[in-house]
Automatic annotation (TrEMBL):
Protein name: Protein translocase subunit SecA
BP term (GO), one: intracellular protein transmembrane transport
EC number of the protein: 7.4.2.8
HAMAP family in the cross-refs: SecA (MF_01382)
């Protein structure tokens, strides 16, 4: 091997693929630049179209595409892609994840790669993390795509079904991951092939790939509806039972009520520590024996733990969760008389999202708000499953290398580290560690005030919205005037972020993931660039570390873009949540300076260790959740395959001819073949969907139950789960068919489906189950195990 080659390989970062071959293609594209400039627009578009035939695999074709794409961007957008951007394009076209720092121009690289993938004959979805970015990027890149001879479209939350269909029919579609997931879920309930919205999956090009593929991967996207309106026993009140509002408690009365409002009142009267305990790490809350007695007394002397009172116990637990674990302005805000969730990872209001029904109602009750309608889960899918459907995947992000192992493990994706266009000169100062959060907060204000005195723009990152507010208050008391970013809408936020680099600006924000807006030095128009640069460029101040170093890097990466001057410093405290939660056994009682500064190496080690433990826990949760979901995914595939045969074919009618032959003949005589075939189709679809939704509910209960049973008994919950879930899954299709045949036999001669009990949901809604503050069941199960292994008990138990 030539020495140069060996040196180049040495310089390559571990975990990252070799970019040498890509750079060679880019160099060739550079040599073609002059030729391409000579083409007029029509000739340029035609030259791109010619590449369609080649499949865009050979280096020469890729180089031709890069040259044409660069020229098109120059003409359509006024930006000539840098060589490193073209390296990014090639990485994306090779089906890998490109790590490109903030401000390097990922939007443009992604748009060119999307066009390249489209030339290969597949539809491309450019998946973003929110509506704002999907629409912004699609509109921004539209002239480029048009010049390349491609159509493009975008989907956002408000898009109507027709608009969605049109957007998905384009060569390139920009959409938030969640909207594509919701469209898929809705399509899976379609009763008419013409109502389908999504085409076959082609290429997924994922923006902020680590956020989507790792952090949010196991988040269920949920479709719920008011599907099942059979009267149930819990709403039918017989005269001799107490009425639901009857809380007048006398000792000889049975359970009075399971209304959330009453339970909220009840738990509000309980005293933390005495009546219930919370466990920081497991994020669980439990009644103490004294608390249980208090609840039992208030509910009329019932035995709370008797099997008959399980619904009451559950309801009390939900109320307790809402009371003790969910904090207003941290986990949710109340706006316009409704509870709006704050997405923990992004610190923003998550539109149209709600917690699982019981919990949502409990929080509404806690805040004394009117209850919003509940429903049942019709289907759900995780982001990982959604992405797994695409035969071709690629992505881009500023922070990929740190999760290269997971991208490989879960998606078979490799990472390519693309060097910056101009060398980075950002100065990252070593961490400053303080004994207490209070010491740290004082120091943070000082650091910001000092930087500001010199006119230096400052971006301060906090762990959550409440911390942002606290910091802002401290800054205002110090005579400063910060702009606080939290829980605003994405577009307004983008405008504020764009100004964060202005001379003298102070911006306070929670986590930066999903805030895909560039921070230019000197403000959005760069007016004050020189002054801001002279003052040292953007200074990023982190107040405490996040639960992964990647999130720290995302914040840090906002400074020093495109070779600008800039700096970053993190000020952490030994009392930060991250440290007390993940390194509970490590304590430091050595010396501290007067201002609380701790320089001891061991103490610094503890802070770093806590973050590594947190990262390890997150990874185990991901793996564990994936194991559960894998089985459910396989079962869903069976149901969907059957559904497709019924929806698009005559499997429904064939089933009835076979299993209900006599009635089929009678109905055909009365109503005609077509009407009977249509009714058979609807009946089978209805029962497939209903069987599936009930199966999901059953699996959820099963998991909850197994989780409780296996804790402390050394059983493997997954094995226990599979033992029951596998046979239940095997019965699914047979159960659905039996139910459909039975319903068919009850069809009257006019084939009136409502007479056969077919009631489709009159309303459906979607949410991201993400924001369950104590995590998904798997997370709780896993955290419980961690707590057991480390012998940790609740704080006050
Ligand atoms: P990223 O998503 O990588 O942080 P963006 O796609 O938001 O970066 O781009 C950052 C800024 O750089 C945008 O204002 C964009 O217009 C600009 N930009 C991107 N590529 C180029 C280029 N080749 N020449 C000049 N400006 C560019």
């Amino acid at each position: 091997m030539a020495l140069r080659e060996r040196l180049r390989r040495l310089a390559q970062r571990p975990g990252s693929a070799d970019i040498g071959p890509l750079q060679a293609v880019v160099a060739e594209a550079g040599r073609r630049e002059d030729d391409v400039r000579a083409l007029d627009d029509a000739a340029l578009t035609a030259a791109v179209a010619e590449l369609r035939e080649t499949g865009l695999r050979a280096d020469a074709d890729l180089a031709a595409f890069c040259a044409l794409g660069r020229e098109a961007a120059r003409r359509a957008l006024g930006e000539r892609p840098f060589d490193v951007q073209l390296v990014g394009v090639l990485a994306l076209l090779s089906g890998r994840v490109a790590e490109m720092a903030t401000g390097e121009g990922k939007t443009l690289a992604g748009a060119l790669a999307a066009a390249g993938h489209a030339l290969r004959g597949r539809r491309v979805h450019v998946l973003s993390v929110n509506d704002y970015l999907a629409r912004r990027d699609a509109e921004w890149m539209r002239p480029l795509h048009a010049l390349l001879g491609m159509t493009s479209g975008w989907v956002v939350q408000e898009s109507a079904p027709d608009e969605r269909r049109a957007a998905y029919a384009a060569d390139i579609t920009y959409a938030p991951v969640s909207e594509v997931g919701f469209d898929l879920l809705r399509d899976r309930l379609a009763t008419d092939p013409d109502a389908l919205v999504l085409p076959e999956p082609g290429v997924a090009l994922i923006d902020e790939a680590d956020s989507v593929l790792v952090d949010e991967a196991m988040v269920p996207l949920v479709l719920a509806g008011n599907a099942d309106d059979e009267p149930t026993t819990d709403t039918a009140v017989s005269p001799d039972e107490p009425t639901p509002t009857d809380l007048a408690v006398s000792p000889d009365q049975p359970t009075p009520t399971d209304l959330p409002g009453d339970h909220a009142e009840l738990v509000r009267r309980l005293r933390p520590g005495r009546d219930y305990t919370t466990d920081e790490e497991a994020r669980n809350v439990q009644l103490t024996p004294a608390g249980a007695r208090e609840v039992e007394r208030a509910l009329g002397g019932i035995d709370l733990y008797a099997p008959a009172h399980l619904p009451t116990l559950t309801a009390v637990n939900l109320a307790l969760h809402a009371e003790a674990l969910l904090h207003r302005d941290v986990d949710y805000i109340v706006r316009d008389g409704a509870v709006k969730l704050i997405s923990e990872s992004r610190g923003r209001v998550a539109l149209l999202q709600r917690w699982p029904d019981g919990l949502h109602a409990a929080v509404e009750a806690k805040e004394r708000l009117a209850a919003s309608p509940g429903g049942e889960i019709l289907d759900s899918i995780t982001v990982q499953e959604l992405i797994g459907r695409y035969p071709v995947r690629c992505g881009m992000t500023g922070t990929a290398l740190a999760v290269a192992g997971q991208l490989r493990e879960f998606y078979e994706l490799d990472v390519v580290v693309v060097p910056p266009n101009r060398p980075r000169i950002r100065v990252d100062e070593p961490d400053r560690l303080y004994a207490t959060a209070d010491d740290r907060d004082v120091a943070v204000v000082e650091v910001i005030a000092d930087a500001h005195a010199a006119g230096r723009p400052v971006l301060a990152g906090t762990p959550d919205v409440a911390a942002s507010e606290r910091l802002a208050r401290r800054l205002r008391r110090a005579g400063l005037d910060p702009v606080v970013l939290n829980a605003k809408n994405d577009a307004a936020e983008a405008a504020i972020i764009a100004e964060a680099g202005a001379y003298g600006a102070i911006t306070v924000s929670t986590q930066m993931a999903g805030r895909g807006t560039d921070i230019r030095l000197g403000g959005a128009d760069g007016a004050d660039r020189d002054r801001a640069a002279e003052a040292g460029g953007l200074l990023v101040v982190g107040t405490g570390h996040y639960h992964s170093s990647r999130l720290d890097d995302q914040l840090r990466g906002r400074a020093g873009r495109q070779g600008d001057p800039g700096g970053s410093v993190f000020l952490t405290a030994l009392t930060d949540d991250l440290v007390t939660r993940y390194a509970p056994d490590q304590t430091y009682d050595g010396p501290t300076a007067d201002d609380g500064l701790v320089t001891d190496k061991g103490a610094h080690w503890i802070a770093g260790h806590a973050q590594r433990v947190a990262e390890g826990v997150d990874l185990e949760i991901h793996r564990n959740t994936w194991r559960y979901n894998h089985l459910i995914g396989l079962q869903r595939e069976d149901v969907l395959a059957e559904r497709d045969r019924v929806l698009r074919g005559d499997a429904g009618d064939a089933l009835m001819r076979d299993r209900a032959a006599a009635h089929h003949r009678e109905l055909t005589d009365a109503a005609g073949e077509d009407a009977v075939a249509a009714a058979a189709r609807q009946l089978v679809l209805f029962h497939l969907d209903r069987t599936w939704s009930r199966h999901l509910a059953y699996l959820a209960d099963l998991r909850e139950g197994i989780h409780l049973r296996s804790l402390g008994r050394g059983l493997d919950p997954l094995v226990e789960f599979n033992r029951e879930a596998v046979p239940a899954g095997k019965r699914l299709l047979a159960d659905a068919r039996d139910a459909a045949v039975e319903a068919f036999n009850a069809l009257p001669p006019d084939v009136d489906l409502t007479a056969a009990g077919v009631r489709r949901p009159t309303a459906t809604w979607t949410y991201i189950a993400h924001d369950n503050p104590f995590g998904t069941l798997d997370e709780r199960a896993f955290r419980g195990l961690v707590a057991m292994f480390t012998g940790r008990r609740g704080r006050s138990s």
